[in-house]
Give the backbone structure.
Amino acid sequence: MSVGVDTVGPEDGGTALAAEYVLGLMSDAESEAFEARLADEDALVDEVVLWTEYLARLVDAIPETAPAAAVKRRIEATAFGETLGRWSRSPLRQIIPYGIGGALAAMALWAAVSFGLVGGGGPEQPVLVADVTLEDLPVAIHAGYFAEAGELLVIREQGEVPAGADLELWLVQEGAAPVSLGLVPRTEERVRYPLADVVAADLGGATLAVSREPPGGSITGLPTGPVVGTAPVLPF
């Protein structure tokens, strides 16, 4: 089986929807709508089976360990936040070991769906990544730095940029002024920003921050509005 093949059709994002369903990343309403489709669409059922089997195989070589319950809860909360309840009901949750399941499966989905790394040869991989969930805004942002291209790929995974404002990305290094990396895409879901070598050199170990700014972004070179989300930049 090839995970890169969308048997449902690219126009409705069948592969991505099936992966999100398997991982429990859909809202209750989205899950209900998806399950209604499963009753009528055999190809979509095949996608759910494919993703369940594929993501489960990712952890086959890792010995199962049962950490303390508190450790498991912290890992799952970090990986899924408000989606934890839906993740606990997902098909994959029943077959991936505690402790590693949430974080590993989330990264697997992020890489496979967002960056197209699974199946069909795939493009180059990001060397650094960050996932930001915004406070008080239903927006999730993924960012990945591709060293070969010298570009930062920014994906607005869910939610909308608020009307009358923009969301601006900042690179924050301890003891240094924030550096603007660009705006979170408003009309499209993803955008690539070329990064100067001097900026890219500071990405590793830094923090990615998102501020709410006037339309067009900050005109001062520094955040002028509230910082609504942060995340560490980590090796992929």
